[in-house]
Amino acid sequence: MKNASLFLFIVISTSLFSQEKYTKEISLKTDNDLFTSTYYDRYYTSGIFLSYRLLSKTPSKKYVKKIVEWQIGHQMYTPFTAIVPIVALHDRPFAAYLYINYGVQKVFKNNRILKTSLALGVIGSAAFGQELQDFIHTIYNFKKAVGWKYQIKNALALNFNANYTQFLTKDASNHFDVSWVNTAKIGTVFTDVSTGIYTRIGFKPLQKLANSIAFHTNLNDDKSNFKRVAESFLYIKPTVSFVLYDATIQGSFLNPTSPVTKEIVPFKFDLEIGYRFTANRFNFGYFYHFYTNKVKNLRFNKGNYYGQIMVNYLLR
């Protein structure tokens, strides 16, 4: 009965749609391994991201949309468990990263997207990782985390990030398409490159790259040639990465005094499987994310996973 009610809610929600256009969006996204298991709490344990997106009115002959984004983000990492009082048992460092990010996304006429962003923040105790984890553990009635006094030391966080997406192909029914996705990061926290494939399987006809919640391009004004329509799709996104530097593992080169640092694994594989859908002004998403080891000699060396929940709301 519960499953039937959930299916009915999704079907009705994706049908209740107006043609009104919206130029702004707020988004709350949260990552947590608790979304996939209440037993495991390790490695990348939490991420919280609050974003505000705005459709720019700057005209251009090269692109159909320009979207500006502000984001506040927080990420938190622990060893194989959050309770490790003996420092010799830390198989990866405790670490937290807090930042503000400004990004510009340009949607070009030939089914390409380029997003560049600059993040400024801090890693270390100034990012309040211990305090946030204690708060989360209190909510779930878990034991208090032990071992944060050995976390990565405070350092300035400055990172430049670029994302490039290129549409590749789709089927005749427009219920299946594939895009090429790429990311590059360079800075005092992360330096890496990745490439992969983003495949969508639609329960409804899929929207173009320039007008889809999949790529955060669903904002439109009165001059836009696109209409807001209901979306509902599964997606699969495998990527491979080459990692040059990760301050949450190796410590910052700006402050090389961290008591626990580890050696990174240069090559990494990630797999996202998720579902996204619209419901009037809202759009929702959930995904399962598996990734191979980021650190050498982990106690649990067969990869790790976490879940993500996303809620977005459109504004005029």
Helices, strands, pairings?
Layout: H1 2-15, E1 24-32, E2 43-55, E3 63-78, E4 95-108, E5 112-123, H2 129-139, E6 155-170, E7 176-187, E8 190-202, E9 232-246, H3 247-250, E10 267-279, E11 282-291, E12 304-315
Antiparallel strand pairs: 1-2, 1-12, 2-3, 3-4, 4-5, 5-6, 6-7, 7-8, 8-9, 9-10, 10-11, 11-12
Number of helices: 3
Spatial gap, N to C terminus:
37 Å
Q: Structural class, from helix and strand content? A: mainly beta
Find the CATH superfamily. Answer: Outer membrane protein
**Spatial sequence of strands, sheet with the most strands:** 1-2-3-4-5-6-7-8-9-10-11-12
CATH topology grouping: Lipocalin
| Overall pLDDT metric | 92
Globular, elongated, flat, extended or rod-shaped: what is the shape?
globular
The helix/strand order is HEEEEEHEEEEHEEE
Described by strand count, sense and barrel closure, the largest sheet is: 12 strands, antiparallel, barrel
Strand percentage lies at: over 45%
Q: Could you list the spans in which at least 5 consecutive residues all have pLDDT below 50?
A: 11-15
Estimate percent helicity.
under 10%
Question: How many extended strands?
Answer: 12
